[in-house]
């Protein structure tokens, strides 16, 4: 079976490599010449554990190809996945420019029955827009080529993308015919051999499922951050509350971690887009609006705690441990670290940063406005405070006695609740976390 995947970002490249791994012939397409050139030379554009090996193995075995030209493979493939970006527009709605471009190229060039499957996160009603564009193009060509559209939202998490794709909790597929259903079933069968978890539904429901899933997860986080902030005021400990409620099977123990707010390329934008879909349909999504409001405030909680502890931030030296929006990725999109660094610089503090993999990404975004340390220990030399923003494993058990000796001050703000307050107090630190 041959497929094409348009958009070779986190989703497109991971999906492409995983489909190739189970024996499917995959052509990954991107308009970014440099990205495709690099991939052809074995250079992976993103940090994702295991992806290097997976890509190089499948390229070597001849099942994974890269091109900038979708038309070059269109006659050979049964399915085209669209995995291009859907960034937020100025009003918060999803910008469908790239999705529409793919539909146009598809309509201009297909010559036989092909299914265009949208893997990007797109609002309800997008499939109908895609069909209009394809029909326009087919009419302009004066041909009547059979085709179908389908929706197959992706649920992988960065940092665990390959595992999530290879053994998903479920695969959601919106289709309009039995013919498309059979093709999609065949495509996903290798991943689901033991436990068949493909959920077929209509396209609108599949499109909505993706936003509902991300918004539900974001709601849990904002809810716990709200509880954490109240815990601080009343003398409770959010970690104990998390354990207390997470053991209730109806609640479950995942995605209940309070901290310095959610970031990334998905939750912030998808929450905004769902609010916007509500607005466009004359409905106010009140819960999701509150989720966003809580998160926006939570992203500067570490900054507020630094200010409360240090008094003024002017001329203070602050070390930032962790830049990525979560561990195991170099992605800094909407990362809470960016909000804190921006606030610190605005208040006149000097900032030294360290992250195991996001240093280049940080240089690209912040240039020389911050100092870059070679490791977590160099970052803290002569600093007044440490702010932990990403819970990378290597930050979990630092040698506090060494750190205490080289720091100027003794403040540690733990934005991810990974340290033991008693241990830090014993070492002579002024320690603050979230929700305790
Ligand atoms: N990143 C994630 O963890 C994740 C998970 C699930 C779903 N999603 C969704 O998947 C979609 C893609 O996300 P991503 O993080 O992979 O994006 P990304 O920005 O990493 O990659 C998108 C790629 O599409 C390419 N592109 C844009 N227009 C194109 C065109 N006309 N033809 C060919 N290539 C084109 C870009 O050059 C880029 O390489 C988004 O809708 C996102 O919301 C992302
Ligand atoms: O209990 C928690 C869990 C997560 N987070 C934060 O939430 C953000 C998102 O984390 P995560 O969901 O692990 O990463 P993503 O890669 O953004 O994945 C989400 O977004 C993807 C894109 O839509 C979906 O495919 C995934 O299912 C969904 O989990 C990060 O900043 C985390 O630090 C918390 O603050 N507390």
From TrEMBL:
Q: Tell me which InterPro entries the record gives.
A: 6-PGluconate_DH-like_C_sf, NAD(P)-bd_dom_sf, UDP-Glc/GDP-Man, UDP-Glc/GDP-Man_DH_C, UDP-Glc/GDP-Man_DH_C_sf, UDP-Glc/GDP-Man_DH_dimer, UDP-Glc/GDP-Man_DH_N, UDPglc_DH_bac
A GO term, aspect molecular function = oxidoreductase activity
Q: Which reaction does it catalyse?
A: UDP-alpha-D-glucose + 2 NAD(+) + H2O = UDP-alpha-D-glucuronate + 2 NADH + 3 H(+)
Q: Which SMART domains match?
A: UDPG_MGDP_dh_C (SM00984)
The pathway to which it is assigned is:
Nucleotide-sugar biosynthesis; UDP-alpha-D-glucuronate biosynthesis; UDP-alpha-D-glucuronate from UDP-alpha-D-glucose: step 1/1
Give the species.
Heminiphilus faecis
User: Out of the domains of life, which is the source?
Assistant: Bacteria
Q: Is Oxidoreductase one of the keywords UniProt gives this record?
A: yes
Protein name (database record): UDP-glucose 6-dehydrogenase
Q: Which SUPFAM superfamilies match?
A: 6-phosphogluconate dehydrogenase C-terminal domain-like (SSF48179), NAD(P)-binding Rossmann-fold domains (SSF51735), UDP-glucose/GDP-mannose dehydrogenase C-terminal domain (SSF52413)
**UDP-glucose/GDP-mannose dehydrogenase C-terminal domain location:** 319-421
Instruction: Give the similarity note.
Output: Belongs to the UDP-glucose/GDP-mannose dehydrogenase family.
Enzyme Commission number, as recorded: 1.1.1.22
Q: Which UniProt keywords apply?
A: NAD, Oxidoreductase
């Amino acid at each position: 079976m041959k497929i094409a995947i348009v958009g070779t970002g986190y989703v497109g490249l991971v999906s492409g490599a995983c489909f190739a791994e189970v024996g499917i012939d995959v052509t990954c397409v991107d308009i970014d010449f440099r990205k495709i050139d690099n991939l052809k030379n074995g250079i992976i554009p993103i940090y994702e554990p295991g992806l290097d090996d997976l890509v190089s193995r499948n390229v070597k075995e001849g099942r994974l190809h890269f091109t900038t030209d979708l038309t070059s493979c269109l006659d050979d493939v049964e399915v085209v996945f669209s995995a291009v970006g859907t960034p937020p527009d100025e009003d918060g709605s999803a910008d469908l420019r790239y999705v529409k471009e793919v539909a146009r190229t598809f309509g201009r060039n297909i010559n036989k029955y092909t299914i265009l499957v949208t893997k990007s996160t797109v609002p309800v009603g997008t499939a109908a827009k895609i069909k209009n564009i394809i029909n326009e193009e087919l009419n302009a060509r004066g041909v009547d080529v059979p085709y179908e559209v389908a929706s197959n939202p992706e649920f992988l998490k960065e940092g665990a993308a390959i595992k999530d794709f290879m053994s998903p909790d479920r695969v959601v597929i919106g289709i309009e015919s039995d013919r498309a259903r059979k093709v999609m079933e065949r495509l996903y069968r290798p991943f689901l051999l033991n436990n068949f978890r493909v959920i077929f539904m209509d396209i609108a429901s599949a499109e909505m499922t993706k936003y509902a899933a991300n918004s539900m997860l974001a709601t849990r986080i904002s809810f716990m951050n709200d509880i954490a902030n109240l815990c601080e005021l009343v003398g409770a400990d959010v970690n104990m509350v998390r354990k207390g409620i997470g053991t209730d099977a109806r609640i479950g123990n995942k995605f209940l971690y309070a901290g310095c707010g959610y970031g990334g390329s998905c939750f912030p934008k998808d929450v905004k887009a769902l609010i916007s879909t509500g607005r466009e349909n004359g409905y106010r999504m009140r819960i999701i609006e509150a989720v966003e409001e809580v998160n926006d405030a939570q992203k500067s909680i570490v900054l507020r705690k630094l200010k409360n502890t240090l008094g003024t931030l002017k001329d203070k030296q602050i070390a930032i441990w962790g830049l990525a929006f979560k561990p195991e990725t170099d992605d800094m999109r909407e990362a809470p670290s960016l909000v804190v660094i921006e606030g610190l610089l605005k208040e006149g503090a000097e900032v030294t940063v360290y992250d195991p993999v996001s240093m280049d990404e940080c240089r690209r975004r912040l240039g020389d406005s911050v100092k870059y340390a070679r490791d977590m220990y160099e970052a803290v030399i002569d600093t007044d405070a440490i702010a932990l923003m990403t819970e990378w494993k290597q930050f979990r058990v630092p040698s506090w006695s060494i750190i205490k000796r080289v720091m100027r001050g003794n403040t540690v703000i733990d934005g991810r609740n990974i340290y033991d307050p008693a241990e830090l107090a014993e070492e002579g630190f002024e320690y603050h976390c979230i929700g305790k």
